[in-house]
Fold Integrin beta.
Amino acid sequence: MTSWQRSRPLRVLLLCCVAFVVCAAASSGGARACWSPSVTSCADCLQRGPQCAWCFQEDYLHGTEQSHRCDLPDNLRRRGCRPEFMERSDVKVEVDATLNSTQVSPREISITLRPGSEASFVVAVKQLERYPVDLYYLVDVSASMQENLDHLKTVGVALSLRMTQHTSDLWLGFGSFVDKPVSPFISVHPSKIDNPCSEYQIRCRPAHGFHHVLSMTGNISEFTRVMKRQRISANVDTPEGGLDAMLQAAVCQRAVGWRPEAKRLLLLMTDQPSHLALDSRLAGIVTPHDGRCHLDSNVYTGSTKMDHPSLGLLSDKLLENHIYPIFAVEKMQYQWYEELVKLLPGSILGKLGLFQAPNLIDLVVDAYKKLLSEVAVSVSVEDKAVSRYWVSVSPICPRGSTAKDQSCSGVQPGQTVYFNITVGQRSCPDDGEDEDVRMLVHPVGYNESTVISIRSKCQCKCGPTGRCGGNDLSPCRGSHHGVSQEQRPDHGHMKDSSSEPNRSCKADGSNVNCSGRGVCECGKCVCEQSRLGVVYGKYCEMDDFSCPYEKGQLCGGRGVCVSGECVCEVGWTGDSCSCPTSETSCQSADGLLCSGCGKCVCGKCVCTDPKRSGDFCERCPTCQLIPKSSCKSVDCHHSRGLSQKEAELCNTTCALHIGSKTDSSERVSSGRLVGTFLCVCALTVLCGLVVVAVSRLLLQKKVMPRGGAGADLGYHCTGKDLSYIPTTNEKTVTYRRDRPPDQPVEMHIQVPKMSLDDHWQF
């Protein structure tokens, strides 16, 4: 046996002990999940968790601390708090089904939360067969993009023809950018402000942060004509202002002409990285971007006044305006933008050697297919409350698609994706007041969203009166944290000199204030605290620990102690809540209660028939021939609903049936007893005969001579054996006398050989 096998019983014992300790700790933790000495108000109580409730019933646990008003609802109810006097963390979710939607539903949801609580709801996103598409080209027109800009002049018609396979309504728009027109991003030499390419003897456009050139149009010829008129510009540093221009193209919806019902694609084309937030400090610009549109005559006027937007701000604005960004970058900058798109939900990155028309068309078509096949959502909360809430999103993808993080890929047109969203509240505002928070659920790339209106309840109403259980202290009370050392009971007498004025603190027939377990203040008892439990009552005469214990736990751990009696949980009863009310533990294998021959008492069968035994009264050695139906007649006990005459007839028949069964069982038992007696007698006689026969045979064998019985016993001698048999049997008998000792007398007797049939003769 190995050491592990030898120690196996010890391991099992230790494992059981650990399991018991863990279960006991969990039970204790659940019981104390709400109560705490630091809880002094309803608001404090409800912040302990959604499972907690506050009892504002005025006479609840009279004389105890305010902290005992906070507990689990079941415990409060058992201790006498009525449900209408409980302030609870009720979570409400209301869905507005009146607003119709073709893609995202529901459109509006209202939620009521408290700190520690959470609510779940489902948002459905349906993929349509065909969508109108708006595609906005945002192009870097710095000098290094001259060759690429020429390739764009023919992309309009080719792209329109290619997209007819996926949509019959394609609109195009165009805008350009370079960088912020301030030093050190551009040259501020007078000769280069209007023409930054003057040193190359080329006429260029002035540098600009963003210039909106062409609003959305379905006229592809107009798009091609505008593209042919575009000229390049120039700047000094390598990074460009692409992200700054992208934000303006997203938020300036009226100027750009984004259609509400269309899928919106924003294609950024550049061969350099982009400036990020805080880069503008090099030019002395320290004002953060406000995320608003600042176009004047289609020119971005805030370029020299505000910093570049942060990636977080850009991401929010793209989602808020349902923009799906596409980055077409030169292959040398692919790695830089690869890290960037991870921070912008729904972004697509394309690596192109030269921005030729076929490559751009493939990039746009692939991005559109991905937009349709991948459904994802993004949840945003107001900045003022983002730290006080948490959100969890779980997609439920249709058949044939794959779930990944918060999205489903491979979704086919006409399929619906469901998102199970859970919102939870961590805490209340610093002022502790109620607040309203707005949350948005954005399906990425869709022009519809779900608005979540959250009502955060941090205060307690406590019923129509608004009184939460006497939180205000009486002016004559010194402290609400318990009984002071000088006021504690001493051998049944209080150290209080003014006993007569405190007569209202004495129970009838008692000479002790507050039953010796509290102090009298302002004519009312303030009960002392006890390590065993709560002392309460008008005269501190009640507690929640003077109840029977079961297996070391008060009320067996299945109830609470109220006024010295256990108030059991549902499903338990008894003085110590040790008896289950359910009778399932008494059902035998045949489905009957105690095999139909007993009663279920405290979860165990008590047999009504003295001849029966066993856990389910299933054993009966003396009534094996009696059918089970004799214990309980099913027909008789199912006579409910019959008329009075039919019921009487049933009862009479059943009584006769049971009586006849009883008589027959007695006759059968008597016959079996007689048979048993006769069998025992016969066996006794037989055994006696066998013993006598065996004894006789043994006696004969003992008295027979050796030679005589040999033949009868079947002993046969061979020829070899006969040579050793003497013809005569000789027996020598020697007699010795004392004198003379040296002359013994010897006598020889010769016995002739006898036949086996002869007997000895003397």
Observations:
- The mean pLDDT is 77.
- Residues 42-88 form a domain with the ligand-binding face of the semaphorins, domain 2 fold (CATH 3.30.1680.10).
